[in-house]
Amino acid sequence: MKTILLIFSLLLAVNISAQNVWKTEWMKQDKALHLTTSVMLTALGTETAKDFKLKNPEIVGVTFSLTCGLAKEFLYDTKP
């Protein structure tokens, strides 16, 4: 759990430091949606890994969230 909190704290710090990105309302909503979805997917992956008694469930959860995010970016967003 400490690993997940550290990762999301770093991501939040990076997002806050990019103040010029936050100027439009759409960008604020998009970033909030990305953050919320990432947290939910990480929690889902972590809890599922705990149910299956896997080692390092936090790493499994973060990996699951990143895999879903990358798949969305490369498969869905690259369509013309």
Structural commentary:
- There is one protein chain.
- Helices cover 79% and strands 0% of the residues.
- By secondary structure, the protein is mostly helical.
- The longest helix has 27 residues, at 25-51.
- The radius of gyration is 14 Å and the shape is globular.
- 8% of the residues are buried.
User: Major sheet: size, sense and barrel closure?
Assistant: none
| Average pLDDT over all residues | 81
Low-confidence stretches: none
Q: Sum up the overall morphology in one term.
A: globular
Strand fraction? under 5%
Radius of gyration: 14 Å
Q: Total number of helical segments?
A: 3
Keyphrases for this structure?
globular, 79% helix, 80 residues, mainly alpha
Concise structural overview:
The chain is an all-alpha fold. The protein has helices at 2-17, 25-51, 57-76.
Outline the fold blueprint:
Elements: H1 2-17, H2 25-51, H3 57-76
Helix pairs in contact: 2-3
